[in-house]
Every structure is written in structure tokens, then in C-alpha cells.
Design goal:
alpha+beta, Arc Repressor Mutant, subunit A, SH3 type barrels, five-stranded antiparallel sheet, two-stranded antiparallel ribbon
Length: about 220
């Protein structure tokens, strides 16, 4: 029984990783899954093959991998539990943003349906996690989609609002918190340095610089 539980948790982790990466880093490759989960590429490749055999994962036309309808259903249930737990840890327990993902991952496999529903009621049915990502409803439907624009795509002078930031990277989140570059924050692109240099932003009355790799992971809406 313990082995079965461990395998199910592992399956949920992989399906969640592939689904999240499809939303932000498509096409999804085995190496991206390995990086997301903090494991080796051979280990990820072996598990992906097993999930393909079980009918949870499939090969995509762009050379990447995706989840089947059955795999997506499981992934969205896990993502819902994860993001509800993140909201609880932030809103009720006051945990700092860079800590909530790792802690919430401990909840995502063990929250029962009744506890999940009580948390949703306590939190007044939140639509997004503290990082700005949508929380699927009980039927797996997302309340809203992602914008098509990331910070790195904005032109000089453009004004925007941060929509969401990566949730799984605590060091990056600590850095973004120090910059004040968090969901719902308004900003303006003041200058884009040449030769792949940094992007200079006006956030409130402070000017901050952010690298292009980081800017490409932050989704924004134009204002």
C-alpha cells in the first residue's frame, strides 16, 4: 500500500509539472520537467515513459510532451489543492511568498475533499494563488487564462501590471519581493539596455533593474 501511495504521489507531481510548464514554457521537454522537479534527466525520462504507458502522458507534434485528458484531470485536481493551500498559508498563517510553494506541496497529495472544501469556504473561494496563477474549480475549469505578454516583450515607455510570477523558485521569489515585482503591482519600462542588457523599471517611485531571463518569466497585462 505504501508503495502504491508513493507511486501515486510521484504520478501527481509529474502530471502537475507538465501541465504547469505547458502554461508557461511550452514545448515541454523531459529536461524542463527534470529541472522543474529538481531531479536528473534520466530519472525524469524513465518516469515519463511509464506515464505514457499508463495513458497519462503523450508526445506532442512540436517535439514536446503533454498530458492526456485523464492526466489533465488528475493534474488540475493537484494544482487546485496546491494553490488553495498556498492561499491558506499566505492569507491565514502569514507565511512569506517564497516559502509557501514548498510548504503547500506537502498538502497537495493529502488534502481530502472535505478539508479542501472547508478551506475554500474559509478563504471565500479564491480565484488565484498568491503568485497570481488561477485556481481550477472542482470541475477542473480555470477562472481565467494567462495573458500573452511577458515583461521582456514590453517596449520602452510601456506601462503594465504584473499578472503572475513563478511559484516554484524560492530564491527568485525572494529576489522579486525585494524588487517589489509582485502580482498586481504597476510598473513602467524606463529603459532597455542594448546587447541583451537589463531592463530598467519604475516601480512606484523606485527604479529597479531586472535581467531578461527573469523578465521572460513574469506575465503582465498592459495598462
Amino acid at each position: 500500500m505504501t508503495h502504491d501511495i508513493g507511486l501515486m504521489e510521484k504520478t501527481e507531481m509529474y502530471l502537475k509539472a507538465i501541465t504547469v510548464l505547458q502554461q508557461s514554457a511550452s514545448p515541454v521537454t523531459t529536461s524542463k520537467v527534470a529541472d522543474f522537479l529538481g531531479i536528473t534527466v534520466p530519472a525524469a525520462s524513465d518516469m515519463v515513459k511509464r506515464l505514457m504507458q499508463k495513458g497519462f502522458v503523450l508526445a506532442e507534434g512540436d517535439g514536446g510532451i503533454g498530458v492526456t485528458a485523464e492526466g489533465l484531470q488528475i493534474a488540475l485536481q493537484v494544482i487546485r489543492r496546491l494553490r488553495v493551500a498556498e492561499r491558506f498559508l499566505t492569507d491565514v498563517l502569514g507565511l512569506s511568498l517564497e516559502k509557501v510553494y514548498d510548504e503547500a506541496c506537502k498538502f497537495e497529495h493529502v488534502l481530502g475533499g472535505e478539508v479542501e472544501e472547508r478551506l475554500v469556504q474559509l478563504l471565500k473561494d479564491p480565484m488565484s494563488c498568491p503568485h497570481g496563477h488561477p485556481i481550477p474549480d472542482v470541475h477542473g475549469r480555470l477562472p481565467f487564462g494567462y495573458p500573452a505578454t511577458t515583461l521582456v516583450e514590453l517596449k520602452e515607455g510601456a506601462k503594465a501590471t504584473v499578472f503572475c510570477v513563478p511559484e516554484e523558485d524560492p530564491e527568485l521569489l525572494l529576489y522579486l519581493t525585494e524588487l517589489g515585482l509582485l502580482p498586481h503591482v504597476n510598473l513602467q519600462v524606463r529603459q532597455i539596455a542594448p546587447y541583451d542588457g537589463p531592463i530598467f523599471l519604475l516601480i512606484g517611485d523606485m527604479q529597479q533593474a531586472v535581467g531578461r531571463d527573469v523578465a521572460g518569466r513574469i506575465y503582465v497585462t498592459s495598462t
